[in-house]
Design brief:
Chain lengths: ~180, ~180
């Protein structure tokens, strides 16, 4: 086993950070999604939709964002409200709904969280896991545990974050490459 | 939109590591929340409370640790017993945000371990965590836990403390704080 020094610093490299201002979407293109990394990490915070109760989706592209995949997804979003014993699951086969139902008018609880994306450029076994906090519209503060994959994806070279309706009013999303 | 890379350096920067020495009431990180880091990562391991059946918890400060906010939180924790797979949901707290609801044992050989993410503390943010620890309940099963916390006060948090919510000291624990560029 190699000695890694007095402490081990994980080699997680910031590739790009983008801040939305009433933006239709935030896209990380093939400039950043490359074969250099097989695993990526995304950190997001301060994210609000301009339309209430919409889903915050992640979409995958194999042609650098010219089109986005809309089938062959297996995705599940497990939601637990902070003061509830109920667990609710939302499924999708057409996209990756990281969050479902974020409020657009609760100033203290935007979407915050982190996500790991595996095997994007390798054409097989691309999958996404995420853990987020948010404010469920008309309800309460909640956490979301998300997992998704696409069973037919080719090599992914762009990803897009957007709401199912309306724009991203605000928020920052940062993309990191994980050295292996 | 700023182009920040490629960057050969790690974007996770170790800021400080602290261990519980002499059973302190808390482990605090002050003076380390800075504008250049929007998010923070904490690695906590070996957390043993002095009082049995307590919870590893966090609280935030506006005055760099002189006082810590003791109200206006929204916190929930989703827990799962490793032995049975049964999920349990903790009673939520608005005063003592907890990293688990597992009633952490004060006699276990291995303490509670977790990763804690703190997002945008100088703005409107939140904390989420993923951890596991030996429970004090019958049979001492291992519980995994995912928790989320938000603070409903104004932005501007500039210190965080880890403690035994809400009773007793920390017998043993080590916590490392990383700043995250981006």
């Amino acid at each position: 086993m190699a000695y890694t020094g007095p402490f081990f610093v994980p080699q997680i490299v910031l590739l790009q950070s983008q801040t939305a201002s009433n933006s239709a979407s935030i896209v990380f293109s093939s400039t950043y999604i490359t074969s250099t990394y097989t695993t990526y990490k995304v950190i997001y915070y301060g994210i609000y939709p301009d339309t209430d109760a919409t889903a915050f989706n992640l979409d995958l592209s194999t042609d650098n964002g010219a089109t986005y995949l809309n089938s062959n997804f297996l995705a599940g979003d497990l939601v637990n409200q902070y003061n509830s014993a109920t667990l609710a699951n939302t499924n999708s086969t057409t996209t990756l709904p990281i969050i479902t139902g974020q409020s657009n008018n609760t100033a203290n609880a935007p979407i915050c969280g982190m996500m790991d994306l595996y095997n994007l450029p390798t054409a097989v076994d691309a999958c996404v896991v995420a853990h987020s906090s948010y404010f469920l519209s008309g309800s309460s503060f909640a956490q979301s545990i998300f997992a998704g994959t696409n069973t037919a994806a080719g090599s992914i070279n762009a990803i897009r974050f957007s709401f199912s309706a309306g724009n991203i009013a605000s928020g920052t999303i940062s993309l990191y490459g994980v050295k292996q | 939109m700023a182009y920040n890379g490629p960057n050969s350096l790690s974007s996770f920067v170790l800021l400080q590591t602290k261990s519980a020495v002499g059973a302190p009431t808390s482990i605090v990180f002050t003076g380390l929340i800075m504008p250049q880091f929007k998010s923070y990562y904490f690695n906590i391991y070996g957390f043993i409370p002095e009082t049995n059946a307590r919870f590893p918890g966090i609280q935030f400060s506006y005055d760099n640790g002189a006082t810590y906010q003791a109200s206006s939180y929204l916190q929930g924790s989703l827990n799962q017993l490793a032995t049975t797979g049964v999920a349990t949901v903790n009673t939520a707290s608005t005063t003592n945000p907890r990293l688990n609801s597992g009633n952490t044992s004060n006699t276990a050989a291995s303490g509670f371990c977790a990763e804690v993410w703190l997002f945008n503390p100088l703005g409107y943010g939140s904390a989420i965590s993923l951890g596991a620890g030996v429970s004090s309940v019958a049979g001492n099963p291992l519980r995994s836990a995912r928790s989320v916390t938000t603070y409903l006060g104004a932005p501007g948090i500039n210190a965080i403390k880890f403690y035994s919510a809400d009773l007793g000291n920390i017998t043993r624990a080590t916590v490392s704080m990383y700043g995250i560029f981006g």
